[in-house]
């Protein structure tokens, strides 16, 4: 896969103006953007329409966790916007994930991805909500359930990639947030890794946030990340 397409830049911005400024700075250096709850709430769906109009791919990270009918409706709305990927929460179970997959059938270019365990969570966090298994066991369980439901791939930490690739096979998408360059702070991510390690382990995409978005030269920082993916 082209390294340019493997890097998803997280538009974790609090306004449309901030997002537009970053998109302009990155120009042709970035093809795929993540739009999450913060930006979608602040700017509305027009920010997605703007990206699609520029020929960009949009990874809409909503982590949908609702009754199946509501999830299906949200997926159809995302498809109408031209979104390329949308996330559902694996903890919602096979009914929610299957509803999302079925709703996506009308949009052949859109992929449904299941969140396994948020990268900030630890074994202790899972225990707090009654999950007795370790994070790595829960990740694998939810990934297998997502595959059974027909999801196109999963969201997991860089540290989970190798096991997931072995279990899910070569065609599944595995997208990894929580990636930082060597020496950088992992911030709130409890299970981080480098972009190179994630791709080498079998990730299809990596999500990059502060490394690029808070750099003095975002385009230059993105080029550094891309170079780090080289074998």
UniProtKB/TrEMBL annotation:
The Orotidine 5'-phosphate decarboxylase domain extends over 6-225
To which pathway does this protein belong?
Pyrimidine metabolism; UMP biosynthesis via de novo pathway; UMP from orotate: step 2/2
Gene Ontology molecular function, alphabetical: orotidine-5'-phosphate decarboxylase activity
Residue numbers binding substrate? 12, 34, 119, 209-210
Q: Which residues form the active site?
A: 63
GO terms in the biological process aspect are:
'de novo' pyrimidine nucleobase biosynthetic process; 'de novo' UMP biosynthetic process
Q: Which reaction does it catalyse?
A: orotidine 5'-phosphate + H(+) = UMP + CO2
EC number(s) per UniProt? 4.1.1.23
Q: Which GO terms describe its cellular component?
A: cytosol
Highest taxon in the source lineage: Bacteria
Q: What are the record keywords, sorted?
A: Decarboxylase, Lyase, Pyrimidine biosynthesis
The UniProt transmembrane annotation reads: none
* Family to which this protein belongs: Belongs to the OMP decarboxylase family. Type 1 subfamily.
- What is the protein's known function? Catalyzes the decarboxylation of orotidine 5'-monophosphate (OMP) to uridine 5'-monophosphate (UMP).
How does this polypeptide assemble, per the annotation?
Homodimer.
Q: Which HAMAP family match?
A: OMPdecase_type1_B (MF_01200_B)
Cited PANTHER family:
OROTIDINE 5'-PHOSPHATE DECARBOXYLASE
* Protein name per the record: Orotidine 5'-phosphate decarboxylase
Q: Which organism is it from?
A: Streptomyces mesophilus
